[in-house]
Specification:
Helices cover 72% and strands 0% of the residues. The N and C termini lie far apart (34 Å). The chain is built from 4 helices and no strands.
């Protein structure tokens, strides 16, 4: 069985210098969604974190290892892609049920 390491996304975002960019993306997503109840807002941000964590895990598996530099590049690319999607239209996915 392959070893599993729990990602601490906040630590990764701080170490890579991408925390503020992630928070800015979250704020933009919330603005794009319009007024949401507090629980739905939290669920949106947590779903973003889960999606980013999944992306980082997949990239690490694909590459076989991950340095801080790799994490920075992968995180920034993910954030940039999501920001671009926001400018194109409504974000799809994420169950805010």
């Amino acid at each position: 069985m392959e070893p599993t390491v729990k990602l601490d996304l906040t630590t990764i975002l701080e170490a890579t210098g991408e925390l503020q960019h992630f928070l800015d993306l979250g704020a933009a997503r919330l603005r794009a969604e319009g007024p949401l109840p507090e629980k739905a807002s939290e669920e949106l941000i947590f779903s973003m974190a889960d999606e980013l964590e999944g992306h980082l895990r997949a990239m690490r598996v694909q590459q076989g290892s991950a340095s801080i530099s790799d994490l920075r590049v992968w995180t920034r690319a993910w954030i940039d892609e999501r920001q671009e999607a926001l400018t194109r239209g409504p974000v799809q996915g994420g169950d805010r049920g």
